[in-house]
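Researcher: We plan to redesign the surface later, but first we want a full-length starting point. Tokens attached.
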């Protein structure tokens, strides 16, 4: 059908992320928060607009491979290790859809620890910096207590994150985090009820045609 309208990739992705986060109140807006922190970190690091947009979309889908509630909730532990199965499952789910091919690569390695530089590779494959951005963004998100005012927790979150430079996180990305963490908007926007609009207004939008359309 030639007259089918194109679909916003952003709306498609955030619709999926909302559905995935409905499995538990503890997960509400988790994907969008990771997308937001990825946006800020990618911008601070000087990534291209295209790569920032792709990293944001990856953040909005990063846990789509967690196929059980138990698996999803376990991933909320700050120092979760060996969580690569759901990342690999997500990669397999995403890679077959051409607009998600780069997103899939970023998601595949988003639980790889930096480990003093060993995290540049995982199982013989290069790990994109975007994957390490997702990892840090994800861990920032799990430290936010939705029951408390976010600014009251900033100092504790900063200490926990910065203490893991080199071990869990790429130190270059930690430096970007340090630059952002002193800015109130960085935290307030992450818990805003308008987080979808914030993301929509700050990334490069693309569209996809429905299957079967020419």
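Model: Full-length starting sequence:
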């Amino acid at each position: 059908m030639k007259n089918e309208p194109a679909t916003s990739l952003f709306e498609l992705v955030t619709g999926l992320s909302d559905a995935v986060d409905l499995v538990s109140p503890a997960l509400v807006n988790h994907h969008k928060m990771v997308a937001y922190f990825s946006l800020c970190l990618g911008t601070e690091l000087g990534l291209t607009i295209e790569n920032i947009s792709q990293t944001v979309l990856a953040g909005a889908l990063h846990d789509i491979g967690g196929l059980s509630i138990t698996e999803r909730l376990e991933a909320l532990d700050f120092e979760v290790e060996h969580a690569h199965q759901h990342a690999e499952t997500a990669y397999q789910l995403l890679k077959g859809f051409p607009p998600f091919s780069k997103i899939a690569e970023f998601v595949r390695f988003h639980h790889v620890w930096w480990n003093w530089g060993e995290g540049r590779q995982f199982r013989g494959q290069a790990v994109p910096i975007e994957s390490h951005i997702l990892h840090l963004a994800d861990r920032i998100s799990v430290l936010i207590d939705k029951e408390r005012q976010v600014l009251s927790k900033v100092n504790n979150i900063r200490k926990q994150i910065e203490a893991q430079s080199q071990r869990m996180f790429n130190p270059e990305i930690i430096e970007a985090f340090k630059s952002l963490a002193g800015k109130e908007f960085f935290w307030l926007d992450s818990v805003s009820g308008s987080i979808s609009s914030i993301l929509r207004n700050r990334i490069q939008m693309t569209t996809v045609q429905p299957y079967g359309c020419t």
